[in-house]
Each structure stands twice: as C-alpha cells, then as structure tokens.
Amino acid sequence: MVTTLGLLGGGQSAQAKATANRVVTFGQLTNRNPKRLAGIRQAARQQILTQTHAKSRRVPAVYQVKLPHHMTKKATLTPQGLRMNLLANSFKVKRITIPYQQLTGKVLNRYLPKANRTPTTKGKLVALTFDDGPDAKLTPKLLKILKRNHVHATFFEVGNSVSRYPQISRAVLKGGNELGNHSWNHPDFNRIGTAKTVKQVIRTNQALYRATGQLPEYVRPPYGNITAAEGRAIEQPIIRWSVDSRDWAYLNTQKDIKSVLGATRNGSIILMHDIHAPSVAAVPTIIHRLKAKGYHLVTVSQLLNQRALPDLQYFGRGDYRVVGH
C-alpha cells in the first residue's frame, strides 16, 4: 500500500520516490544530523563486506574505506535501497546499495518504505542483557531458558571468547536474540586510550563477523567506561544499563532475583552475566515475575525502537545522552 506524505513533495510516497531513483543529499536523508550520517556509514561497512563476500580478515580494512562525512554529498534512493558511490578503496568496489531495512532509524522515515520505518512500540517493555560470554556451558543453558519462555535478549560478547566458541554466538542469533560487542578482553577503555579502544572494538567485530557474517550494531564498554573521543571514533551506538544486578558480586541466585525485580521499571535495560551459574539460575524466576507484572521482555533494538545512533549512549528507553557526558 502506498501512503501519501506531503513532506515528500508532490504527494508522492517514499516508495514511489525510491522507485524513480531519486537523488538526495545526506543532509536531506538525515536532517543534517551527523549522528544519523555516522549510522549510515556504519550500515555501509556491513554492506561493503556483504556485497564483496569478504572474509573476516578484511574487516579491519573496511574501517579504512572513506565514507561520506559531508551533508552535501549525494546518494540515490532506488527500489532496492540507498545507492552510494565510493571513492577508490582496497575492496575495489565503486558502488554499494544498502537495503532499507539496514537504515531504519538512521534515515528519516519519510525517505524509507513504510515497512522499514522506525516502529512505535507501546506497553511495559524491558530488555534483558548479558555480558562477558559466550560461556561453553552456561550460554547454551541460558538460550534454552529464553526459548522455553518465549523471550529474547541481547548478549554483549567478549571477542576472545567468541573466537573460542563461534558456534555459540551463531546459536544466540539463531534463537532470535541479538549480539553486541563487549571488547576483546575486557579492559577499561578509559585507561587504554582511544587508539587501543578502537582496536579492541574492531578485533571483536571481526570475531563476530567471522562467527556470524554480521558486524554487531552495538558496543557495551567494560565497566561502562568510555570517553567522548572513543565514542566518536567507534561510530557505533553505546549501550549502558539502568538496572545493575551486581550478580558478579553476589554470586547468589536469590539476591540476583531480588536485585533485578526491585529496580526494574518500564523501559529498563537490565545488566546480568551469562558466565555465572547463579545468574543463569535466576533468569527463569526473573522472567516469570516480570511477566506477572505485565512486562514484555525484548531485545535492546526493540526497546529502543531501532533508533539508536552512534556517539550516543543509551541507559534505557528514552534515557540517552552524548557519549562521555
């Protein structure tokens, strides 16, 4: 169905404009928002790898490709997606077309087909997130718990563990969950500096791409520590939390349950770890009791309506700020 949007001009829909191969500037696509443009660059990197069938060893090289930073640069809306010309690069690709589903939240809704516009979710939503995996035994056990309870979660994985257990990372995605980057070996980004932080993130992105064929959308910095310069350099949304279970400190199932249930509110992002047996043991009760209170447990992307952008850090639904602030 075609929807009329006067904002597009002439009463034509975004779909109709795209079919006509409409040339637009990045300023138009993003309302001159540099964070949206950073999001488009993020999507472009995945598309370069996908379009060239690149091996994982090429992941670091995709971050060297020169991508648009100026709002006056132009792209084309086509039936297949957003077509961009590229400068000379080591992938020897002159043009990419980013599917519209990869641009939800990054491009203004009026330039997207209706099916790919940012959704508006209502109701009591919370996101369960798990850090520091994958663990050889506990993560598969947790995945079974989530599946049995018809719940999806977001897993922020450490690169050196992903490299050991890539099949578990694949299983996370296969179960309808999502993956995020939690560094290569869990350093404090604030202590290692921007250059080493970027290397940590890219190396983990490479491990996740090797395991799944996808670059992760999000980064969660170890200990929640990240500077403004690091946030700008990473060019991925930063996911923090509003409920800290402190399960690593308790290592006690009943305390984990009490901690989470006592602090969770509508829109919360809950932090737990899938490397501690008491934490995983607490999950069924946490799920059941949150459901009994009317909560729906969703992924981070669903909680944030797929609107997360680079250079911003998100603590919960509607609770975000610039990285480093």
TrEMBL record:
What cellular component terms from Gene Ontology apply here? membrane
Q: Which GO terms describe its molecular function?
A: hydrolase activity, acting on carbon-nitrogen (but not peptide) bonds; hydrolase activity, acting on glycosyl bonds; metal ion binding
UniProt xrefs under Gene3D superfamilies:
Glycoside hydrolase/deacetylase (3.20.20.370)
Q: Which InterPro entries match?
A: Glyco_hydro/deAcase_b/a-brl, NODB_dom, Polysacc_deacetylase_ArnD
A Gene Ontology annotation in the biological process aspect, one of them, is: xylan catabolic process
List residues of the NodB homology domain.
Answer: 124-298
> Sorted alphabetically, which keywords does the UniProt record give?
Carbohydrate metabolism, Glycosidase, Hydrolase, Metal-binding, Polysaccharide degradation, Xylan degradation
Q: Note one Pfam family from the annotation.
A: Polysacc_deac_1
Protein name as catalogued: Xylanase chitin deacetylase
Source organism phylogeny: Bacteria, Bacillati, Bacillota, Bacilli, Lactobacillales
